[in-house]
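Our consortium's second objective concerns turning raw sequence data into structural hypotheses that experimental partners can test. To show how far this objective has progressed, the report includes one record in full. It was chosen at random from the queue rather than selected for favorable results. The single chain below, 399 residues long, was entered without modification.
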Amino acid sequence: MIENLKKNLKKHKNTIGLAVFLGLLVLAFNVATNIFVLNNSRSKTFVLDRRLFEDSRNNELKTLKVEGVDLIEIGRNIWDLKDIDNATIIYSTDVISSKENRQVMQIVDFNHKDTMVQLEITNAYGYVVSNDGKRVMYVVIEQDSKAETTYILSLEDNSIIAIFEGRGLVFLPGDEEIVLIKEGYLYRQDLISGSIQRLAELSKEATDFIILDKIEALNGYYIVDYKEKVTYKRFSPVELQAVVRGNKLYFMGADLEGMAIFSLDLEVENSLEVLVKGAIFEFDILSSRRILFRGRVNEVEGIYLYDTEKKSYQLVIKGTVLQYAIASDGRLAYVLQNDRGNYELHIAYYDGDEIIADEIIYKDNSYAIYLSWSRGENKLFYGNRSVKGSQIYRFNFGR
């Protein structure tokens, strides 16, 4: 009888153990469907397969979720990162050998990671992708003369199709014209005929940021008061930004107070004006009177909405924001440095007045260098770097 009791007890224990094991397995599966840890590192966490805005008041957003993440790892620092289409990225990096250190442009496809286009380009910066994704514009600073030259690269056969003096800012709609800066003027440059049209003479504020400090040209631009012969601030050329909305050109540069956003009517000569000044790091034009920008106002850092008519600021996101990108439907992606010094990638919904939903989809301890929605706005490109090199993630969204 005692033997039977022992057998029953052993059998009972096995049943309990199996139940506990199955319970833990189910729990682990449920957690895994919501949190994916890359490379077994506690510092890198992805949120997957979970509805991000389930409690949102916007019904169209309630089913939005991250369906997957793709990764490209590069064992070096990169800069001038841009996305060309839903799968392709372009960036600059250094290729270091025993003989020399060479700067190269690399073009990589997420869907075919083993296939890479590499072009050797020295002292190039400021990649601008055309609206159709078939061309890339970049600027080269010549070593001796320190002059700027703009090159147009065809991505279909990797050939240079046009070269112009000056610094190209942006492709105009149709991609057959660009806006460039040359000798203190803004020009409209035709890529096919080569004809050039003067748009505006740059204002005193704009001229200060356009002129190169000849001694340190290769290291960046300076805000220089040439009358007083004083250099105020250095900033990197890749911080410059320009966008076209309708017949308006908006671009960012520096003046003696910091950075400024300028506007220009492409159909009206000498229509250059300053919209807003201050500690501005990047911007987006939401409408003719509403500018979203990352920066600092009254020593408070974050993402702001600026009304050009009321000349008023509204704080949208407070904190140390390193990058942000907004989609046409109000999805706002941004990278926030938290109190512990780690970096959080947020997906929020901004309805034009306030944030009505906000979720963290990724955390790590690598410095954020790039954030952009794809052209179809169903993918998000995120780049960061650390002492081990650079990583570029592609988050794939679904509903």
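The partners drew two points from this record. The longest strand covers residues 273-285. The mean pLDDT is 78. Both points have been shared with the crystallography group to help prioritize constructs.
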